[in-house]
Specification:
The chain is globular and about 55 Å long. It contains 17 helices and 12 strands. The chain has 2 domains: 144 residues, 3-Layer(aba) Sandwich (Rossmann fold), CATH 3.40.50.720; 165 residues, no CATH class. β10 and β11 form a beta hairpin. α14 packs parallel to α16. It starts with a strand and ends with a helix. 48% of the residues are buried. 48% of the residues lie in helices and 15% in strands. The chain is α/β, with parallel strands linked by helices. Bound molecules: NADPH dihydro-nicotinamide-adenine-dinucleotide phosphate, 1-deoxy-D-xylulose-5-phosphate and manganese (II) ion (MN). Manganese (II) ion binds next to α7. It catalyses: 2-C-methyl-D-erythritol 4-phosphate + NADP(+) = 1-deoxy-D-xylulose 5-phosphate + NADPH + H(+). It is an enzyme of class 1 (oxidoreductase). InterPro entries: DXP_reductoisomerase, DXP_reductoisomerase_C, DXP_reductoisomerase_N, DXPR_C, DXPR_C_sf, NAD(P)-bd_dom_sf. This is 1-deoxy-D-xylulose 5-phosphate reductoisomerase.
């Protein structure tokens, strides 16, 4: 029986991870779950899966939760609680499914405790990729991708050595506004932006898909996960989200992973790896789909992707700034404080004013993240 802890159990990835576990009760047990403030759902989850540890965002929520749960389930809260669920249980695998670089300390704690990581929280790798991968290397811990594109690349690579790889290509759906002109983007609403054509996901990543920042974060994520230089990572528009990404090898062969857009498949693969198990996901019929389409990526149309590539190539603290500015800009857009196109202005402003620091330590990353957030919160008000 594999023991699992989930950071962000009440979110889109967290609930789908529990769906996978529910479908395989003989194979998985839940050791710990951490959530933010959805107290009703986390109560239900704790009563159903009986983890040893549960954590929520605040002391008040923890007090409420304790009164709803049997005594043997220990309830923690706050940043320490999240770290306790990441590192303080007997879990073999920790699924990192909180949103944003707030997931960095708990991901590092899980790695340092020797846990296999099912990595959904891409922002941790973007903000501190060299530190996360170095901790994993030193501890001999696997970072198993959950992000659909990276799971596809991981499956397509199938352990082939780096020198046989010519290029990694990430597919991009184009998000909610893929067929709108930049002029039309001036008027879009939050409700429009939250309508992703293919995937049902949390709000922040859905906006990232619409700005193409998601693909930018994923390029940097691929760089760190697969130790690949940026000039051997590319992005192609693929509106159907059926080919989840592909690898071209040096002999020109291309190997791809395909499937209906359903996150339970990559989540399950990270939990069962290297095994495969039946999935409740619907089977893909290419004959029914008829055709798959592809388009060249236009970096003028999607400047967030260009800025992500630039940040990745600059390295050091540049991706930290890209990520922090994006997180704040998206939160402001979701609150109705700034228009959609200002998201990219906030990121561009943050990158322009930042002097990149090479090989930053953790303290420097935290400080750059903090300063970037402070500026991004008030610029273009
Ligand atoms: N959704 C998807 O299909 C995909 C997501 N990802 C990545 O996975 C990550 C999660 O995304 P997604 O599931 O969509 O996000 P959601 O917004 O749906 O979920 C975020 C989770 O984090 C929890 N959380 C918030 N604050 C805290 C806190 N202080 N302590 C502990 N937990 C907290 C939330 O709890 P609560 O709701 O209780 O407040 C919720 O469980 C992101 O990094 C995203 O980029 C990657 C690929 C696909
Ligand atoms: C499901 C998943 O992995 C998301 O990151 C998804 O890739 C978003 O799709 P696009 O960013 O391609 O719109
Ligand atoms: Mn993805």
């Amino acid at each position: 029986m594999k023991k699992i802890a989930i950071l962000g159990s009440t979110g889109s990835i967290g609930t789908q991870t529990l769906d996978v576990i529910r479908a395989h009760p003989q194979q998985f047990a839940v050791e710990g779950i951490a959530a933010g403030s959805n107290i009703d759902l986390v109560t239900e989850q704790a009563l159903e899966f009986r983890p040893r540890l549960v954590s929520v965002a605040t002391r008040e929520l923890a007090d409420q939760l304790r009164s709803r749960l049997p005594q043997e389930i220990v309830v923690h809260y706050g940043d320490e609680g999240l770290i306790e669920v990441a590192a303080g249980t007997d879990a073999d695998t920790v699924v990192t499914a909180v949103m944003g670089s707030m997931g960095l300390p708990s991901t590092l704690a899980a790695i340092d405790a020797g846990k296999t990581i099912g990595l959904a929280n891409k922002e941790t790798l973007v903000t501190a990729g060299h530190i996360v991968t170095e901790h994993a290397r030193q501890k001999g811990v696997a970072l198993l991708p959950i992000d659909s594109e990276h799971s596809a690349l991981f499956q397509s690579l199938n352990g082939e050595p780096r020198e046989r790889i010519a290029e990694l290509t990430l597919t991009a759906s184009g998000g909610s506004f893929r067929d709108r002109t930049r002029e039309q983007l001036r008027e879009v609403t939050v409700a429009d932006a939250l309508k992703h054509p293919n995937w049902s996901m949390g709000a922040k990543i859905t906006i990232d898909s619409a700005t193409m920042a998601n693909k930018g974060l994923e390029v940097i994520e691929a760089h760190w996960l697969f130790d690949m230089p940026y000039d051997r990572i590319s992005v192609v528009l693929h509106p159907e989200s059926i080919i989840h990404s592909y690898v071209e090898f040096v002999d020109t062969s291309i190997i791809a992973q395909l499937g209906n857009p359903d996150m339970r498949v990559p989540i399950q693969y990270a939990l069962t790896y290297p095994d495969r198990q039946p999935s409740p996901s619907s089977r893909l019929s290419l004959a029914q789909i008829g055709q798959l389409t592809f388009r060249e990526m236009d970096e003028q149309r999607f400047p967030c992707l260009r800025m992500a590539f630039e940040s990745g190539r600059l390295g050091g603290t540049a991706p930290t700034v890209f990520n922090a500015a994006n997180e704040i800009a998206v939160a402001r857009f979701l609150k109705g404080e700034i228009p959609f196109l200002t998201i990219e202005d906030v990121i561009a402003d943050a990158l322009e004013q930042h002097e990149v620091i090479a090989a930053p330590d953790l303290e420097t990353i935290h400080e750059v993240d903090r300063l970037t957030r402070a500026r991004a919160a008030s610029v273009f008000a």
